Structures are given as C-alpha cells and as structure tokens.
Amino acid sequence: MRKTILLILILSILSIPVFGNNRSLVKGKQGSIKYEKQTTIRIGSITKNSIAEDRPVLKTPKKHITQREASQRGLLGWITLSPMPNSLVGHSVAGPVLTGDEIIVVTGGSQDFSTPLNNTYLYDFTTDSWSVGSNMPTALFWHSSAVCKNKVYVFGGYDGSSSYNTIYEYDPSADTTGGNPWTLKSATLPQTVYFTTAETYNDSVIYIIGGQSGSSFLNTVYMYDVVNDTIKTATALPISTRSHGSAIIGDTLYVWGGWNGNWVYDFQKGVISTGDLTTISWGSGPNLPISDSRTNGASVTDPASGTHYVITSTGNSGDTPSPHHNYTYTYNPGDTSWVRIADKPTIADNSDNLIGIDSVAFMTGGYDGTAATNTTEALFFASNIINAKTLKINTPTSFVDTFATISPSATVQNTGDSSATFDVVCIIDSEGVLKYLSYKTVSSLSPNDTANVQFDDWTTGTQGEQFNITVYTNLTGDMIHSDDTLKTSFTCGLPGGDFLVWDPTADQSSGPVIYNQLQNLGFNGDYCTDLTPYLSYLHNYSSIWVSVGIYSSNYTILDTSQEAIALESYLSGGGNMYLEGGDVWYYDPQYSGGHDFGPTFGINATDDGGSDLATVMGTSGTITDSMHFTYSGENNWIDHIDPTGAGTVIFTNSNPTYNCGVSNVLTAKGRIAEGRTVGTSFEFAGLDDGEYTKSDLAKAIMSFFRLNAPVFNYDAKVSAIISPPSSVIANNDYTPSVEVKNVGTQPIDFTLNILITNKGIPVYNDSKTYASFAADSVDTATLSDWHVPAEGGTFDIYAYISSSSDENPQNDTIMISSMASEWLWETIAPMPQPRLAHATVYDYDNNKFYIIGGTADGSTNSNTCFEYDVSSDSWKTLSPMPYALDWIKGTYVDGKIYIVNGYDGTNIINVLSIYDVSSDSWNTGSTPPEGTIAHGLVAYGKYLILFGGIESDLATPNKDVYIYDTESDSWVNGTDMPEGVYMLSAELIGNKIHIVGGNNGTANIDKIMIGTINPVDPTNISWEYGADMPSPNINNGGAVYDGKYYMLGGFLNDVASNEVWEYDPGAKSQWRHVSNAPTILTRNNFASYKKGSKSIYIFGSDTTGSWTASATCYKMTKLAYGINKNKQSITNNGIMSISGNPFNSKVEIKYSIMEKTRVSMQIFSLSGRVVKTLINSNTVKSGIHKVSWNGTDEYGDKVENGVYFYKLLIGKKQFTGRLVLIK
C-alpha cells in the first residue's frame, strides 16, 4: 500500500510556513485541501506517514556517473558529498569508528606540501556533515592511519623538514565527551617514516607498509599490536615502494604501484600466516595497467555477489595521462587483470585518502593537479539501483495568464535498474502560503524511460501574483535524492508595460535606481536581472532600459547571444531603448566579443577612456538642455562616444571634455516603426541629485520616447519611510514615521499601514486613516512605538496604502530593511580632507588618533598627517610625512608611529618612516627587507611584525614575514605565512595574529589565517587556517574589541559593503553580522579601537567602492542596554532575557516593569492561532518577573515542533519575539 503523507511535513520540507488567507484551494487527488479560519488543514485520507519516511539518512547530493556499465558489478557511481572544512593534501583518512560505524576521521595534512597542519576533521555518514575534532599533538603530513578497536592510530609522518617514528592514538569517543582524545603511545617505529600505508587485520593488529625514511625507499613491513602497544618487524616486501596503494582482504595483504626512484608497476600479494602474524608469504599478481604513484587503496564489497574487491583511484602517472589521472580500478582476487570502472569526477592524489566501508569507497581531499582540494566523493556499489528523477517542469513556465485554468506538468525518469512505480508530487505556493497540491502515480516505468506527468487543473491568480512550484519524485528505496526535486517560479499575467529594466551586472547598482525613478513618475513596468524569461515578450513594453555596468562589475552582451538578437529585433519593430555601460560601446565589441549596438544607437565609440568622469553636462537644445550633474558613481574605463548618422550628443563630461551620452531617432525606413534610443557610458545611479535630479532625467528620456507619465484622479503615494532607520538599536523604542502624498487631482480616502516582519513573521503592525486628503497634500505620519526585541535581528519594514479608490497601485508600497544590533553609530568631527588608503594609528598613551598619507581622489597621493583628539572631538594638522604615499599601514610603539613602505602612484617606496609624537617630527629607520604594500602590520611589545602584501611588480602576493626591533632598529626574518596575500586586514588578539580577507593572487580569501607568536621568540610564528569567513572579502577594515575581531565593510563577494561582522574565537558560531555602517566602507586601514572604551573609530574610506574618498568619520559604540543586573534597577518596560531558546522542555522569559500595570502574555502559532495564555491580563507590580512555557497548549497537550511567537502586553506597549520548540 502506498505510504501516505502528512501535509505539514511536506510544508516543512519545502520551508513553507502554514499561515495565510482563507482562500480555498484547488481539489487534489484523494480529497480536498482547505483553509479554515484557524488555518486547520485537512487532506482527505492523507495522514501521518511522511514522504521523507522512505528516505535514508545518508544524504547523497549531486551524483557523477561516467562508466556505469563498465563492469557487471552493479556499480552505482561516484557521488559528491559535503566538502571537507579545509582543502588538504598529504592527509590521512581512517574509519569508520563510533556507534554504527558512522564516523570517518581525517588527520593532519598540508595545503602547500611544506607547512604541516594538525587538524582533525570528523565526517558523519548518517548526516553528510563535518565537524572539527581536537587537534593532533604534532602537525604532520604524509603519515598513515588506520582504525582498530574503535580508535584511530597515526603512524610516522613529515613536518616539512623531519620525519617521525611516533604512534598516536585518537579516541573519538573521548572527543565527544570533553576528554583528551589524543595519546602518544610508548611504542615507536624502528625508524622514522613517511609515505607509508597502514592496514588493519582482524581488528587486532595494524601493518605499516613501505614508505620512505630520509632519502631511502623502504620495503619494510611493521606490525603494531594495539592491545600490547608493541611493534614487530614482519616479512619485508619483495620490492621497495612508497606512495603506493594497499588493502587487506581475508588473510591477504595487497600492495601495488608507488615509486622507488622509478615507477613501480608491480602488484605484491602477501598471505598472512594466522599462526605467526609477522610471517607473510609474498607473491605477485597482475600489474596495474598504468604506472601509479601517490595513489591510495582500499577494499569494498559488492552486495549482490558478496565479492570483495581491491580498489584504487587517482594518482601520479608516468604514462598517459600524465602527471595526474582520475582512473578508478578494481581487482577481484583470483582474476588475471584489473578492471577500470567509473572514473572519479575529480583528481585527488598525493594523500592517504581512500577507505572502503562495506560497499562504499570514500575519498576526501587531495591534490587536483593545481592545488589542494576539499572535495569529498564516494563510489557506491549496489546490486540494483533504485532511483527516480525529476527531469523538467514543463508547465507552468515563467509567465501564465491571469485567472486561467492550467494543468501543471513535469517529465520524470526512472534512472534505476528495474521497473519502478512511484508518486510524483506537485506543490504551488505564494509567499509561503500553500495554494495547490496534487500528486500522480507513475506505474511500472521501465529503466531509463521517461514519463510526462499531468497534474490536476489549477486556476491561476491575479495580475502580478508570484508563485513557486515544486515537483519531486517519491520512490520507496530511492538511493539518490539530489535529483528528486525541481523548483521554479512563475508570475500571473503576461509581461508588459511602460518599461522593462534589465540589470545583469554583478552589483545591480543602477538598475534598481532606474526602476524606482520610473515607478515614482507613475509609469508601470518590470525589473529583471535575467532577460531570458522576457525574450518573447519584449514587444509588450513601450521602453526597455538596460544597465550593463562599469568595469569590473560590468556585463558583456555577446554578439550572437539571444539577448542581442532580441533587443535588436525589438528596436527594429519601433521600440525605445536606453542602454548604459562603460565598456559596451568601445571595448566590448572590439575585445570581448560584445555586440556592437553603436550603429543602431547612432554612436561611434572613439576611445576606451579612463576614470575621469566628474561633471556631466547636458546639451543645449536637446532633451537635456541646461541639465548638469556631479558624477560620483563607478568610474573606470568610461568609453568616449560621438554621434553618427542621426545621433545627437546629449551629455558631455566637463573636464576632460568628451561625449558620454547620445540620443538617436531610428527612421521607419526598413523598420516596422520609428524607434528611439539613448546611450550613455556612465551609470544613471551615479548622477547626484542637485538643481536637476535623476527624476528629471528619467522624465525627459521617457518624454523623448513619447511616453508621458499618466495622471490619475485618485492616487495616494508612499514617498518615504523616515523611521525606523536602516540600523536600529536592540531593546529600544522607535516611532515609525512615513511620508505620504496625494499625487492625484482629487481628494482621496486611504489608510496607511505599517508592517514589520522578522524572517517573514509579523512583529509589529499599525495604521493611520486619512479622509478627503487634498490633492498635492503631503503629510508625515507617526504611528505607535515599535520596541525592537532584545535579541536583535534583521527586519523588513513595509509601508503601504490601502484604498478602494486609488487608481495607481505602483507607488503604494515601500519596503526597507533594518538591522537591529547593540552597536550605535554616531558621526564625529570630519577630517580636514577626504582620505582613503591611508594609515589609521591610535596613540593609547595620549588618547589620540593619527590619519597619515592616503589619497583624496585615487590618483594624487598625500603626505599629510592629521591628529584627532578624542576628548575635544577636534582635528589638528601636524608635520607632513617625508613622502606622499598611499596603501600604507602604521602602528604605535612607545611614543612613535611607524609607517612601513607605501605607494607613490608609480612605484613602491621601500622605506620605514618614523613619526615622533612628542617632537612632531619625522625620520627614517632601517630599510625594510622588501618593498611591499597593502600588507599587514601589527605591534607585539617592542616589535613590529610585517607580513604579506603585494610585491614591487604590483602583481605577486607575498608570504614573507619580518620582525623589526624598535629598540635596535633591525629587521630579522620570521616564519613565513602559508600563502601570500595582500589587501588584507590584520589585528592581534592576545599573541595571535588574525588575518581577515585579502587576495592570494588567484581569488579573494574566505578563511581567517591565524599566526600564533612564540612569546619567547617572536620570530617563531605557528600559522594555521581558522574559521570560514561569511564571504570572501578584500580591502576591509579591522579592529579588535573585547577579544573579538570586527570586520568592517570591504568588498564582500566583490561587492562594496557596509556590513560589520564580529568574529569571536571562543564562540561555537564564530561569525555574527552585528551592524551596518551608514555608508559603504572600503580601501582598508580606516578603523581602530580606542583603548579603554567601548568604541571603534572609523576615519574616511572609500564610500562607493569606486575610489570615492570621504572626510566623514564615525564612532561605533557597543551599548549596554536594558537592565543593570548588578543594581537590579528598572530602566524600562520590556523583555530582559529568554533562557533556553530553542528549547525542548521549558523556556523561561524574564521581563521588567517600571510601574504597576496590567500585563498579559500569550503564545501564538505561525498561523496566528492562540496556543497558550500564560498571563491573563493580570495587574503586576513593578520589578523583574519571569514566566515559563513548557510547550503545551491550553489543554495541557504537547504541541508540535516548530516556530511559535510570544506577545507580551505591558500596559499598552506590545513586545513580540520567536520561540523555537525542538524535541
């Protein structure tokens, strides 16, 4: 009998909250679906057993099968699993261990073949997840490891200079209970070894095979007795080898491949004597078809036949391919040859990284021919593959007509080995609210056959309503779930309107601004980043606006692309188009394969340009007559464009003079109708509003397109959300404030609504009603206070108008996001001049900051030295630095400021500049060993530690470390970094250097690099990689406060950012997004913590990401809000703390009351239904109170797992928040 389903579990799989309106849903198979007032959901006979019930615990994401029928062993193929936390080479993998044989242990390794690591990573097969174990006592790579009696044993290894003869025992059960899991065993190997392999025999002894000692290749076999902790020498291999593969099946030890100064092809087979385990009778078997070194080996079992196989995969090769291969071979004992089966999707050699677990060969990390990798893959054997796959959602597509009856359909495939019967489920939701559910049964589908599944009819929604559709297969015993499900979205109503804005750029900086300006003018249109769904509907739009951006965030419209063809077709049909881009006119058509729009737009591009847009001037007698704008947007490689044919210059850069905007009228000859175009080489969003605004320009261009903004009789508009701001302080009150206008010709009745949500859950709503609001009237509405929850978070604030008479809904709604944190941003006195890429140094002896060097415009370097006095909030200009430099770092030690190197606009200046605070004078110190810039610099006692940066060729990242003694004025070498990196931020936490962000010459860094300084010898620094960063970052600012690292701004994923992230080395979730700056902050070294305070100071920086220097300075202060716990004084009404959230038995909520008042508190479900009343409008005295909830409803019954929210009413003030019940 088919297993039945509980809808709420389907919704949890799809992350759809169960709340919404009372609209009836469509009838589906086996009963009806309906919403009642309390949002009770019933589905006929569909009851508890979940679709997910049939799914095994092991997660198997995207599969890779290349030679599925290579043998008749029922090979399922390679599956990609969750990546290892770190990219490694030379590591060792052992397992499985712990309960149910679930855990695989990865130890040691390196990332560069020279620097050893001591990490321990644990992979859980049941959850496809990684965790971090306790570090090995010694950092090693090229060691071997094996499991015996549920513990891991690590043998020998190499630390980059020396090899080891040690044996370490790792007990993972101790690691899970807080004990010390690592033990150095008394027994040692007879000699130091590395490049060995280790194989366990009968869960009693481990053989350590071959390898290398010094420069000697070994044929030794050692036997380690785990119980007695003894080492014995077993019968040696006939042939010495290292970097080989090995495995044990039954009583036979198999050793193959490797290197001993030459490629080793031999297959060495040794029969272990059961009477004397040190006696091994060696013989030979069939050689591998390929020379194979730095490979690996394991044994696996075919569950169909019970046959045990030796397996090896990837390695170094002296044959073809060379030097690395991804071949996988198996050997059946007794056969006369090896069989090549499914090639591994990725190369991963140079590691002891393959183990067999029953019918699974597991492999993680290794060297891919270029660098260390963290890829994790497994090869599965199965007697009968069971899998059903969703190939395609056929209907609905991107757009459907309104209120139309459609039949959703999908194509599925049986990719298993036997005929299969399975269900296919289709779910449609809108904004998280379920709208439709239907499923059909596919019966007896033959292997590799496909089926088109037609679901029940469904009636679409209103114009503009958006839906998500999910289709997935539900096959009992399905082995691979990564291909079960497909999701897409669609919109009701065929696209069309006054305009379509297409912004495919990396940063989408201009498209949204264009869209908002056109919408605010009363035009109706759409915005997209992908033009593909709209290609068939372009002619439904009166105008198209395209922003392809400025280098390096630009997008190239390729010459033969569907996009280029469709846009040219649109223009030939009489369409109107605006196109902006810094490279689209000159560079892209000539050098990037871009389509040349110049002939259509009446543009002749004459030069690739530079970074010199300043003031954009309109042209007399054209649509831009008398307009002028200061330009502050992205400003790189701005094409110079001249008119040709009917083209007319409409914009010119003032200095230097060149044309940057052209309009054109396309004659109807050869075209269906007359079209019009406007092309610019700047971004619309970069024009600053002044006497003329972006709105004026948008209106002028639309008028040129013969499109005039509609005039409505009844049209109320939300023009701005004034409060709350984009950053708010947790546990504080804010008064929502919104500006509304009547832009119609007649008085109008309407209601202004304010809704605030957190992760889709409403936490505040209020409204204000307007009657006969006069035409052209403007009002700033203030509503009831909103109390920001103490736990903070990110909130979406919606201001929207509801009115039965409003004729233009396009301007009725505004939404902003606001982040709540404990950090307060305040402006302080501005710097005397704008600066970026300068040095920011704090003098903790005199409580002053110094801003030195930098640039104001990205091209002219400065030698200025400004002093900021914290106590007086004032600036003073000091003696200038001897050199005008940017890209500099500085630090303070004992009355002096040290600036190391710098860039003069052409070359790196290799100099140590020293500023004496007391005498206001400069001199120089001993020349730094290397000329680098964009490096890291910290002070450790009397020492400066200089590291990283970019070398004098301005291309090569540097990993050298140098120590400067401020007393002896001398430099010495320190321990090199694991890799070169520049444009980083770096600070000290204790004796640990933390490097956050930067670029390694190939990509932006996404991991923290940590260097532990030896207090006795600061030149000795132990480097390791720390936690993953939230995103790769570069050119960010850094500061340390209260033992935590604060990463400010930078380029997150190559996009200029205003985000502030906190890194807590001691926290489980180490990164936390804690605040947003009022502006973008980048071009590093602009921030510093003020000792003895709770404030981080920010001076200047690049506030656009395009070399726009700022003089604005900020103070970012950590607030201690709420209750003074020491004095227990009551400072406000509200939530003090929530203990045990998420909870499984009881959660306790503590709250404070300033004065005696009435209090009520209720728990609600996501649907808004009251689950439990905890306080029933009682009068409560002032003080600190607490209330608890044990996860039951009004009848004492346990409620389901999930998200609930509380509503606490103290007097007339409401406080809400989320509670998460986990059983």
What does this structure look like?
A hairpin with a 7-residue loop joins β25 and β26. This protein has 6 domains: 67-380, Kelch-type beta propeller (Neuraminidase, 6 Propeller), CATH 2.120.10; 388-492, Sandwich (Immunoglobulin-like), CATH 2.60.40; 499-705, Class I glutamine amidotransferase (GATase) domain (Rossmann fold); 716-821, Sandwich (Immunoglobulin-like); 825-1118, Kelch-type beta propeller (Neuraminidase), CATH 2.120.10; 1134-1221, Macroglobulin (MG2) domain (Immunoglobulin-like). With 1223 residues, it is mainly beta. The two termini are 30 Å apart. Residues 1-74 and 1121-1129 have low confidence and may be disordered. The protein is built from 7 helices and 93 strands. Strands 41-40-42-43-50-49-48-45-46 form a 9-stranded mixed beta sheet, with helices on both faces.
